[in-house]
Design brief:
Blueprint (H helix, E strand, L loop, with lengths): L1 H26 L9 E2 L2 E3 L3 H5 L7 H4 L5 E3 L3 E2 L6 E3 L6 E3 L4 E6 L2 E5 L4 E3 L6 E3 L23 E2 L4 E4 L2 E5 L2 E3 L7 E4 L2 E3 L6 E2 L4 E3 L1 E3 L5 H38 L2
Antiparallel strand pairs: 1-4, 2-3, 5-19, 6-18, 7-8, 7-14, 9-10, 11-12, 12-13, 14-17, 15-16
Helix pairs in contact: 1-4
């Protein structure tokens, strides 16, 4: 009985976690270059298997599962579709890789190429958070005031025919090592970042990687699974309470 309650409780907790992940995905359906998260589960071994017990001989007991538990969130870095904006300060990456931005004394990474000129009138910064965008040498990018920049497909910036610098882009051998820290930023080891010439498009942004219909469908399924586990908990609790009550009446 208690074993069944544990399995139901674990299932309810895991699906509650999945609901939180899906809710966050849906909240970012219009966030440029947002990468959706996936809530992954793993089967928990039976208690006998975990304890190395060989005493069970019942096939039914041996095949009874141990429930599930949540694994660390996995980010799907699949390329999003391109959305044309016409803005000279919007830049979309069309290959695997990241822009580099400066946050305090650290280098962070993002695929969100919505840029603007900062408060000083020259520094290229991100729209979200107004963080300085770094060039290929890891330095902040200073533009000529009042002149619209042109950015070629390799990231080279020019203004009024004058070469300015190259937008710094990097790639990682394993994107799963990156950690989301909010505002479309990722934290990772700079020594693992490989400077790369990544193709990009000026006047475009990468759309969110969230598919609304898929997420809504997953949310409905997850809510049903959560409710089923809660219902099983209630049934087992009532059954256990009735058994204890009857046992107490035995003289």
């Amino acid at each position: 009985m208690l074993y069944g309650m544990y399995i139901s409780a674990a299932g309810a907790m895991a699906n509650s976690y999945r609901q939180d992940v899906i809710t966050n995905n849906l909240a970012n359906i219009d966030t440029a270059a947002f990468k959706k998260d996936l809530a992954l589960f793993n089967a928990r071994p039976t208690e006998a298997a975990m304890n190395g017990s060989a005493r069970m001989t019942s096939a039914l007991l041996e095949n009874t599962g141990g429930g599930i538990f949540a694994l660390p969130t996995y980010t799907d870095f699949s390329q999003g579709s391109l959305e044309q904006t016409g803005s000279a300060f919007d830049v979309a990456l069309i290959e695997d890789g990241f822009f580099q931005v400066q946050k305090g004394d650290q280098t962070m990474f993002t695929r969100d190429g919505r840029f603007m000129v900062g408060a000083d009138g020259t520094t290229l910064v991100t729209v979200t958070g107004q963080l300085p965008v770094l060039n290929a040498e890891g330095e902040t990018i200073s533009l000529l005031p009042g002149i619209t920049p042109k950015i070629d497909n390799n990231g080279y910036i020019s203004q009024d025919g004058q070469a300015i610098t190259k937008i710094g882009t990097v790639s990682f051998q394993d994107n799963s090592q990156l950690k989301k820290i909010g505002n479309n930023l990722y934290e990772g080891e700079i020594r693992q970042a490989t400077p790369s010439t990544i193709q990009l498009r000026q006047g475009y942004i990468e759309s969110s990687g969230v598919n609304a219909m898929d997420e809504i469908t997953n949310m409905i399924k997850t809510q049903r699974l959560f409710q089923n586990n809660v219902t099983m908990l209630q049934i087992q609790d009532q059954t256990l309470g009735a058994a204890i009550s009857k046992l107490g009446n035995i003289r």
